[in-house]
Design goal:
The protein is an alpha/beta fold. It is built from eight helices and eleven strands. The chain has two domains: about 100 residues, Arc Repressor Mutant, subunit A; about 170 residues, Leucine-rich repeat, LRR (right-handed beta-alpha superhelix), CATH 3.80.10.10. The chain is globular. Pfam families: WHD_DRP. InterPro entries: Disease_R_plants, LRR_dom_sf, WH-like_DNA-bd_sf, WHD_DRP.
C-alpha cells in the first residue's frame, strides 16, 4: 500500500506534460532505484542521444569518480560496476545490449535520456551547438560537439569536478579555441577527472586521467607530467603508434591504477616500474608486442 501512496502523492504528476508524455512514470521508477544506481545513471546525460555506450568506458568512469563501493574487500570495483550495468538493464533503463565476453555495449532510449537530463538539471551539462549558456553551479561537464567550444561562454566555476570529451574523433584543431578552453580548465580548481578522446589539452592536478584515440603519438604527451604528484588512475587506450612510455611515468608516486589498452606498437614498459610503489592494479590488453616480451622464457 505504501508504494501506491508514494505513486499517488508524487509531485511528478503535476509536471506539465503532453498527451503521450510518460516522464512522470519514468521518474517514479528512477526514484525507486538505490542511490548508487541513481548516481551512475546521471552520467548518461553527459552523452548525446543515440550514443552507443561501452560498459568498459562507463564502468571505468564510475570507478574513477568514486561511485562504486565494494561490500566485499576482495571484489574488484570494475566487477561491481558491471553489476550496476546489469541491474540498470533489468530495470529497463538501458536497452539493445550486445555482450562481448565480460564487456558489452548498449543504448539508452530517448525517453530515458530525457529523464537523465531532467534529474540532473544544472549539475550536469552536455555542451553542443545549441547550448547558449552554462550554469554557474555546474559540477560535471561534457563537450559533445566541437563547434560549441567557440560559441559558448564558460563560467568561472570553482565547482566543476569532471570534464569529458566523450566522442571519439573529437579533436581540438583550432589553436585559439584550444587556448581558451585550456584557460577555462585552469580555473576549475576542483577538477579531478578529465576524459579525453583525441584532444591534447593542458591538464592540472588531476586524480584520474583517461586518454583514448591519440593515433599519431609515439609516446605520451608531456603535459601529463604536471599531474605526477596527484594522479591515481591513468588509462591509455587506442594509441596505435605508441612505442614507448615516458620516463616521467615512474615518478608518479600516487599512481594506483595503470590501464594500457590496444597499443599494438608498445613493446616494453619503463625499466623503473618498481618505483611505482603505490601501484595496486596494472592491466594490459590488446598489446601483442608487449605481451610477447613479457612472457616467461621457457
Amino acid at each position: 500500500m505504501s508504494r501506491w501512496v508514494l505513486v499517488r502523492d508524487s509531485e511528478m504528476w503535476n509536471v506539465e506534460q503532453k498527451k503521450d508524455d510518460i516522464l512522470p512514470a519514468l521518474k517514479l521508477s528512477y526514484d525507486q532505484m538505490p542511490s548508487h544506481l541513481r548516481q551512475c545513471f546521471a552520467y548518461f546525460s553527459l552523452y548525446p542521444k543515440d550514443h552507443i555506450f561501452s560498459s568498459y568506458v562507463m564502468c571505468s568512469l564510475w570507478v574513477a569518480l568514486g561511485l562504486v563501493q565494494s561490500q566485499k574487500g576482495s571484489e574488484k570495483l570494475e566487477s561491481i560496476a558491471r553489476k550496476y550495468i546489469d541491474e540498470l538493464h533489468s530495470r529497463s533503463f538501458i536497452q539493445d545490449v550486445n555482450e562481448y565476453g565480460s564487456f558489452c555495449d548498449f543504448k539508452v532510449h530517448d525517453l530515458i535520456h530525457d529523464l537523465a537530463l531532467y534529474v540532473t538539471r544544472e549539475d550536469f551539462v552536455a555542451v553542443d551547438s545549441h547550448t547558449q549558456n552554462i550554469p554557474q553551479q555546474v559540477r560535471h561537464l561534457s563537450v559533445v560537439e566541437k563547434e560549441a567550444l567557440g560559441r559558448v561562454s564558460f563560467p568561472k566555476s570553482r565547482s566543476v569536478r569532471s570534464i569529458l570529451y566523450p566522442i571519439f574523433g573529437f579533436g581540438l584543431e583550432n589553436e585559439s579555441v584550444m587556448d581558451t578552453w585550456t584557460l577555462y580548465i585552469s580555473d576549475c580548481v576542483s577538477l579531478n577527472l578529465l576524459l579525453i578522446n583525441e584532444s591534447p589539452v593542458e591538464t592540472l592536478r588531476l586524480k584520474h586521467l583517461h586518454l583514448r584515440g591519440f593515433t599519431m603519438l609515439v609516446t605520451l604527451p608531456g603535459w601529463i607530467e604536471c599531474a605526477m604528484d596527484t594522479l591515481e588512475t591513468l588509462e591509455i587506450s587506442i594509441f596505435s603508434d605508441l612505442k614507448m612510455l615516458p620516463v616521467f611515468l615512474t615518478t608518479m608516486t600516487c599512481l594506483k591504477r595503470l590501464y594500457i589498452n590496444y597499443c599494438p606498437q608498445l613493446s616494453s614498459l619503463t625499466s623503473d616500474m618498481h618505483r611505482l610503489t603505490a601501484l595496486e592494479d596494472l592491466r594490459i590488453k590488446g598489446c601483442p608486442e608487449l605481451c610477447r616480451k613479457c612472457q616467461p622464457q621457457s
